[in-house]
Amino acid sequence: MAVRKPLYNNGNNLQEMTTSMVSEVVDQVCYQYSTNPSVTLSQVSSGGNLGTLTDTRTQAGAVSNSSTAFPSEATTAEPSTVSVNYARITKTEASVSTPTADTGKTWPVYYNGSGQIQAMSLTDVKDTFLHPAIDLLASGSTGTQQGGTYHVSTSTSVSGSTEVSGSSTAIFTDTRADTGAYSAGSIPETQDQPTTITNYYLHRITGSQITYTEPYFLDGSNNIKEFTTAAFDSLLQEWMQYTAVSSGDGYSLSYNIGSSGSGNTRGSGMADTILNGSGNYQQRQVNNDDYRAQEFPNGSATTAATYYLRIHKS
User: Fold this and answer.
1) What secondary structure does DSSP assign to 121-137, as a single string?
2) Which end of the chain has the smaller Cβ count within 10 Å, N or C?
3) pLDDT of 5 above 90
4) pLDDT at 269 over 70
5) What number is the average pLDDT over the span 27-52?
6) In-domain check, residue 2
7) DSSP 3-state assignment of 28?
8) Which of 75, 292, 272, 63 is nearest to 176 (CA)?
9) pLDDT value at position 167?
10) What's the number of CA atoms in the CB half-sphere (13 Å) around residue 273?
């Protein structure tokens, strides 16, 4: 690993950047990525390619009828499970052209410790700027250093982030049977009567512009010049976009979603909860030859599964 300290102008003297100054450049790399990320998540109504999440809930059993007496609990249909699948996230990797080639003078210069000033190689740049930026972007944090990446929240409005759908559309909804909606006097009750417990929303983090010290580089005549901010930002952005989808050395960004998987969890876990009761047996007599029985959902809420959005390097 070759982490370099580029040279900069300090009072008309060339000097090595401090570790803190290098870190500021890394933060700027993260910001440049956030302005045009090459690995994006979008919300769709169905058929998303990132994975399928299942919400489960119980519903009442079918009604039982008799003309002579109440159907027994043993013969009355038990509550059953309703499953609703959500596949509302699509991951897209941009087709990024190969960036500006390393000519041997493309990148900042550094002092090599042997009396010479030379340009950083692409490997040096990866080790010093690009890969540390990918490490920050792929972390479990959700601050400005993770700009352009995604997280899940139970709120439609999160400071420092933008809801992806822009229309308060949940990527996953946890529902349970609404036990208060069932009554013996209404048998036959509608079997499936859910209530929403929690909605979960997808957000993209907003990056933050960083003020950093511009390094020096070698021009075509081997003169040492200072990068303009715009030129260096452009160089960093195109290489960061390319690295995030085509690094080839384990530093591409990716996401997965589910109850298990590799990577760092981003935001709220999405709980699928369900009632654990065996059924609330109820009766209704309408007249002398109309006896009805039905079992309603009951019990305590338990967690059937918890799903997570994860970001990882590949």
Assistant:
1) PHHHHIIIIIHHHHHHH
2) N
3) yes
4) yes
5) 97
6) no
7) helix
8) 272
9) 84
10) 19
Task: Output the CA–CA distances (angstroms, integers) from residue 14 to 5, 44, 114, 122, 281, in the order listed.
Answer: 12, 52, 16, 22, 84
Return the percentage of the chain with pLDDT > 90, whole number: 92
Q: What six digits make up the tokens of 7?
A: 């040279």
- pLDDT given for residue 228 in this prediction: 96
Confirm whether 268 is domain-assigned: yes
Mean pLDDT of 67-93: 98
158 within domain boundaries: yes
Statement: residue 1 has pLDDT above 70: no
**CA-based angle 159:163:166, to the nearest 5?**
130
Does the global pTM surpass 0.85? yes
Expressed as residue numbers, the domain containing 243 is 7-313
DSSP for residue 157? -
Report d(CA 114, CA 231) in Å as an integer.
29
> Is the four-CA dihedral 153, 154, 160, 164 of positive or negative sign?
positive
What does the alpha-carbon distance between residue 230 and residue 253 come to, in Å, rounded to a whole number?
A: 25
User: What is the bridge-based pairing of β-strands 194-205 and 264-265?
Assistant: unpaired
Q: Is residue 1 part of a domain?
A: no
- Distances in whole angstroms, Cα of residue 94 to Cα of each of 36, 138, 241, 242: 10, 18, 9, 9
Give the span between the Cα atoms of 176 and 196, in whole angstroms: 7
Average pLDDT, the chain: 96
